Amino acid sequence: MNDTLRNTRTSVPSICPFCGVGCSLQFDAERDSATGWRGPVNSRGEVCPKGVAAFDVVDHAERLTTPLVRDDDGDLREATWEEAVSRVETAFGDVVRRHGPDALAFFASSNCTNEENYVLQKLARLLGTNAVDNCARLCHSSTVAAMRERLGAGAMTNSLADVRDETDCLLVVGANPAEQHPIVFRSYLLPAIRRGATLIHVDPRTNATTDAATLHLPVRPGYDIPLLNAMARVVLDEGLVDDAFVSTRVTGFEAFRTALDDVDVAANAELAGVDPAAIREAARAYASAESATIVTGMGMSQHHYGTDNVHALVNLALLTGNLGKPGAGINPLRGQNNVQGAGDVGALPDLLPGYAEVTDPDARARVAEVWGVDADTLPELPGRTEVEATHAFGESVFGALVFGENPLVTEPNLNRVREQFERLDCLVVLDIFPTETVELADVVLPGSSWAEKAGTVTNTDRQVMRMRPLADTPGDARLDLDVLCELGRRLTEHPGQFEYDGPEAVFEELRRVTPQYAGMSYDGIGTGSQRWPFPAGATEGTAVLHVDHFASGSQTAELRPVAHVDPADDVGDDELVLTTGRVLQQFNSGAVTRRSGMLMRLRGADVLQMHPDDAAVRGIDDGDTVVVSNARGEVTVEVEVTPAIRPGTVFTTFHYATPLANLLTGDALDPVAKIPEYKHTAVRIAGVRP
Ligand code: SF4
């Protein structure tokens, strides 16, 4: 362990750097590892294996400890901070002079603090561009888009504790919380099930979540809307509509009912690849429950019509009166530890802090006043999203700063992405490890790990919690917030706007421009949490949204018919559908967890799950190594033959560099949220290698 570790097991805690659950951790000197601390989410101090391994990477031998710059001969060499930052200043200045500020792109980090993301989006906007985005684009941007538009807030409608204590039916769609959000599952969903709540699991795979389910609908990837529309049709046919709710809180009922006239449950069930009786049973269980909640994940959001998928979920909740009351709602489980907060504080190309539209002159004026600049200073046109920016590299975008993300593993169609990145005039990466993205960088800035920084993060439950430094940054590495503020001073014409006396000062500013955070205080959060929305003058945050009126300000929300759209990839007769996801022991691009000895011992290699029928016709046995390919690329991977995956579909994760699943995934984007279609990729299993 880092010999500069300042605190011991009796110290104040920090927050787990991995998933959006936000478990509190502390360092256990005797075990030389992390241990749970009784925090606002994990009140019994439980953590999952990733949490236990959280310190494995803090003093890892591969930590970046000195700035690097690329020499004329193409090699990265060590540099001073002054040389590295000057290189960024000169290169980005040249790009702005030649092409304007929109020729830059800033990738913020769902894995870093609210304060860091806030400063980065401020930097971009004071440079004159809204081209700032974060990894939320790739996971739940479609969820946020649909829920914001329909309900006024793109976040969990109910708290985890409310779900645990109040819900009678859990409709878990496109999520595997038992592995992806293990403490949510163990501490919130399982207690609800033990209390008697029914769990309906909609997922192409049988997994650890399914084991706790009453009903499993193994939906065909890409065919969620036929399934959800069929459920809505059953609700209508069987008189399960919540008439009182619909009459007072819903508009568009007649048009919705008319649109569903053509829906045939049996036909939709066939399209979705599930038993029509199971659809009817699921609809009855969901609609008949006193309070039913939807828990949703990337199986719904990561489609080129992901926004429509979530619209279909909103329809079900509105139709059955499952919004604005305890135990109900729509609850997206967010992936990274601060993916909720990165959006809250404005690291988005179309939205300012607090989800105000960049196109709204009043919103720009409010932010400009706090920033002490003329309202005209702030750009008014939405910037490019992450994948759009990547696709413009070398054509209309020539400089990029990537902060704490690893797009060379996480973006789709990676052969194309690599070519685009290689076309940049200047790629700057602020990170802690030599990731796949760092390999292409012109300037590498060594930053701080989770255990070295202070600030706040916002978990999936809308709880804002404080991180605390437990160790010093190694070598010449610096705190991310200090690096971003230095870049703000050097790159913009408003250096005074980046003079902060630490993260608390940034938090004080960001809560002035983020209405959801207005009533919070750094001290008030303490070692606990404060939940948004927390308006100025309030004594506490709000657990259940949309109670008397929706967060949009309206008393009503609209039922909106949605129609199925075929997935972008056609699937040939000899092809299978690849769908990707996560496992318990690894996280996101694996840049951090693949460097944990403990986690690699638990899950050191990826496999491709394939149904026995698909394996048999291809002559593939369990443990064989196969080549999975399509026009975009190919990967080699070992096969696990298992009935846990539905026939016609294969599954692997996106955590590993080998196999690199996103070499295969397509870059068709949802027209609203611009999220790529990760969950449906046509592939050939072309051969078996000895
Ligand atoms: Fe960390 Fe998530 Fe595991 Fe909690 S459930 S310990 S936040 S990875």
UniProtKB/TrEMBL annotation:
It holds the Pfam family Molybdop_Fe4S4. This is Formate dehydrogenase alpha subunit. InterPro entries: Asp_de-COase-like_dom_sf, Formate_Dh-H_N, Formate_DH_asu, MoPterin_dinucl-bd_dom, Mopterin_OxRdtase, Mopterin_OxRdtase_4Fe-4S_dom, Mopterin_OxRdtase_prok_CS, Prok_molybdopt-oxidoreductase. The lineage of its organism: Archaea, Methanobacteriati, Methanobacteriota, Stenosarchaea group, Halobacteria. Residues 9-60 form the 4Fe-4S Mo/W bis-MGD-type domain. The keyword Hydrolase does not apply. It comes from the Archaea. Keywords: 4Fe-4S, Iron, Iron-sulfur, Metal-binding. It comes from Halogranum salarium B-1. GO terms for cellular component: membrane. One of its GO terms (biological process) is formate metabolic process.
